[in-house]
Amino acid sequence: MSNALILGALHASSTRLPFFDAHIPAGFPSPALDHMEHKLSLDELLDINAPHTYVVLVSGDSMTGAGIFDGDHLIVSRALEAKPGDVVVACLNGDVFVKRLGRCQKSYVLQSEHPDYAPRYVLDDDELMIWGVVSHSLRNHRPHA
């Protein structure tokens, strides 16, 4: 099961990073790329709408089918309306999860993206709160660092 640990809200930043506006092959880079530098804001790239955006740390493997893995950081927006099909941070009866929001007739369902985990149907006496919609995920590709 994928749980979410809320790390905190994001704040707007004026820092702009170098951005090479080209498709980079996974093989050898082109020498022509040296002349394509622009500046890019991570706020713009990640749709950070402070103070409505926060970061959560994922634990568990129930969302691997959606490309979300244990230890990933998720960018979550409280400003977006959650719709069926969205990956959301949901609080169900006091437990916080990262799940795909679904609809089954008149009820909601929180769906894992891993075959070992069954969907969780939201029953009439359940308390469901959607804490935000996941817009992006960040993964450390140097976990030993």
TrEMBL record:
- Keywords, sorted A to Z: Autocatalytic cleavage, DNA damage, DNA repair, Hydrolase, SOS response
Q: Name one Pfam family in it.
A: Peptidase_S24
Gene Ontology molecular-function annotations? DNA binding; hydrolase activity
* Gene Ontology terms describing biological process: DNA repair; regulation of DNA-templated transcription; SOS response
Which residues does the UniProt record annotate as the domain Peptidase S24/S26A/S26B/S26C?
A: 18-134
Q: Is this entry keyworded Transcription regulation? A: no
Name this protein carries in UniProt: SOS response UmuD protein. Serine peptidase. MEROPS family S24
Gene source species = Pseudomonas abietaniphila
